[in-house]
Amino acid sequence: MMDSCAAASATVMEEKDWKRAITNACELIAPIWPLDQWIAVNPFWGLRDRPAKSAERLLQQRAGFSFLMPAAFYREAWEGGRISDADLKLSLEESGMPPALQPLYDALKKSGQPGESLPYSILDVLPENSEGVKAADAVCAEIGRLCGAYFDGRQARWSGTGGSGDHSGFFRFWLEAARQDLSLDYRTGIAGARKRLKALPEDRREAVEKAVESIDLSTEELEVLGHKLLMRILGWASWASGLDWRAGLAGEASEARESLLSVLLVWESVALACASPEQIAARAKAWAQIRQGMQGHGPGCGNGPDAANDAGEKLLWIWHRAYEIGYQRKLRQILLEEPEATAESCSAGSDSDTGCNAQYNIQAVFCIDVRSELMRRHLENHNSRLNTLGFAGFFGLPVSHQSHGPFSEVQRLPGLLAPGYRLVDTKGSTEADNTLNRALDQREIARESVRKAKYSGLSTFTLVETTGLAWAWKLVKDSLHRKKARQPDEGSPVEGRLVHQLGGDPLSIPEKVRLVAGFLKGMSLTCDFAPLLVFVGHGTQTDNNPNHAGMACGACGGQSGGVNARLAAALFNDAGVREGLAEEGIHVPDTTFAIAAEHCTVTDEIMIFDRGQVSESHQPLLAELEASCIAAGREARKERATPLKLNGLDDGELLAALKQRTLDWSEVRPEWGLANNAAIVFARRERTRGKNLSGRVFLHDYDPEQDAEGQVLEVLMCAPMMVANWINLQYFASVTAPEVYGAGNKLLHSVVGGNLGVIEGNGTDLRIGLPLQSVHDGTFWRHEPLRLTVLIDAPRERIEAIIERQPDVASLVNNQWLWLHRMLPGGDQERFHKGEWHGCSGYS
């Protein structure tokens, strides 16, 4: 009897059904961003509605890889004490398996490597071409080359239309190129392919409808096939997904993913038409096995409860969970211990029940980025009268920044959001702005002329012949690191027009008040303001590094936070805004003044902006801040020296070595970025102050006493927690499945399309994720592949209500894409597992 999953294949599929299958397959592919706007992405985002274990098994079946580490990794962790027997027992207990350790030890003796996946596609059973290339690889290479030409934004001299904003026309571009390719049959090894492509309808939907009819699969099976095909060209599929995502943020329509999948499905139908009866029979046999595997687990085929809890689940999952429990045990111990070095305790008799801000002379607001943890800890250890807070590094200001000159505006906010406002630089008058813009226009025209000459077919060699010596001096100077490091702008304070993104109208005072009140409430800073408030953005400096943006920030498109910090300080200091805040119940003393700064994550130096705006009364505090920044930077560099293999140097030598890394065009590891991130904490700073969290924890201030309705926490769990999850799983996947989700070797990278992405060697598919050099030092992994631990100081009921209201949060929590813990009043923790709270005393 034909099973229910295959029943629909006996009849012609309706248009709404195959469209749904294509849409569902496309939704399984996570988006990526351009190199110059790079953000860390959860590559499993499209699978978030599945339990993590089920998703891993699905990817192994469809794409032939596992996102668990090999058995040797866990064996080494166990032998080195990173995993204890107690961790293993807790992992077994969580999974509901018998507490027998011997089967786990035996599992480490096996390779555990996934085998070949079944031939879902007819291309898998076709013979190799005359050059020994598989048909599937040849087809994907052909599509990849055309994607590079079509989506090119500025690099090629002749390009398709995708770089100009037409994201949905790739199918037409591909079809025309394929029909004109006289070598198509030879390169793919599919005799008659070009002839059949010539007979296809021009309209994409008509061509896909015919392809679906010839492929002859049910709706669910077509979705599975579509996902399989997209995984074969994952880089370009992810790029197309990113185009669709960003178009959606802008309120525009885009069908880039569907256009790409349409090409793949048409190729499938063409290959079927050219296949022999024996090859078609082999495909049918494979699909019979696939259907059996889909029963009870496949999309639309009765997907039951967490199938990963079956008795036969992989024992490596038990090891991996024990590996994560090992870290959670250490984190719990650190938070329970007395601080290594702590500021003076809150003075007795304080009338504030929600914190101890009143005792501090200086408050510094840092990005939640894990690299800020080191600097915050050392600042507070050096100066007990200084308190730091953690908040999203765009400071709650969803702005795009239009600088002077012929440059596109830059979005300075998390890539998951759309800007609501635009900050337009101004010199204070139209005449001054026009003069500066004309000068910058002329400079860019001269540069563009050189670029065109470098790539022109007529002048390429003559340019080198006539200017070779000049370029030689530049190369020598760069090689000797004689050029100056790029510094953040220390010019005049932010004198920009803050206007609405749509319409361009300036913001009114009440609108500015809402912005400032929003970020103050978001960081639980609504009272007890110190005399000096510092907004500290962060950025990085590297040279000749296509992956620069990935070092700068994991969330904000690779942009530094200095502009947002200066804007936040300017808005906070606005007298009209202060009056409006008072009406909102936020009383800022007249003696409180805000300034901005930027933390360089390569050198751990903090640059303070706009010193000239600080009044005489606040100069002693400014001097105190600068001295603390120098001392904290020295200690932070010392702590980071070992993983950078620079230990043994005094601070002057160490700082010089770090600065050289920013200038060295051959340096592939200028810094470790957000490597080794493992947890995020939403709590008052007093909960973590003085605790050495080793630069592994995102720290976001949250005071549950100021959020009785849970509105602030809901925003935090839907935004910063989501961003931290994306960063965490981007690093996780780049370690556990580097061939699929990693960007490969930096030394072999070539940039595609100006800033679209990179390919490795002579490949044609984009490489996504992080380069090997960002997670591995040549000997050891520098990132531990752990799912994020989320630790929240809030009542159970508040957290549970948010999980119930927010489906994406529920998916991440319930499907174990992260681990949710709660802080208890005494300092201990409890964990949320399968809808219930459990004590963490077993983590001792």
Automatic annotation (TrEMBL):
Q: Using the UniProt record, give the first listed, main subcellular location.
A: membrane
The record's InterPro entries line, in alphabetical order, gives:
DabA
Record's bilayer topology term: Peripheral membrane protein
Q: Which Pfam families match?
A: DabA
The UniProt keyword set, sorted, is: Cell membrane, Membrane, Metal-binding, Transport, Zinc
- Residue positions annotated to bind Zn(2+) are C367, D369, H538, C553
Which cofactors are required for activity?
A: Zn(2+)
Entry's localization field: Cell membrane
Give the PANTHER family listed for this entry: INORGANIC CARBON TRANSPORTER SUBUNIT DABA-RELATED (PTHR38344:SF1), UPF0753 PROTEIN AQ_863 (PTHR38344)
**How is this protein organized at the quaternary level?**
Forms a complex with DabB.
Give the UniProt family note. Answer: Belongs to the inorganic carbon transporter (TC 9.A.2) DabA family.
Q: What does this protein do?
A: Part of an energy-coupled inorganic carbon pump.
Which protein are we looking at?
Probable inorganic carbon transporter subunit DabA
Q: What is the species listed in this Swiss-Prot or TrEMBL entry?
A: Marinobacter aromaticivorans
Gene field: dabA
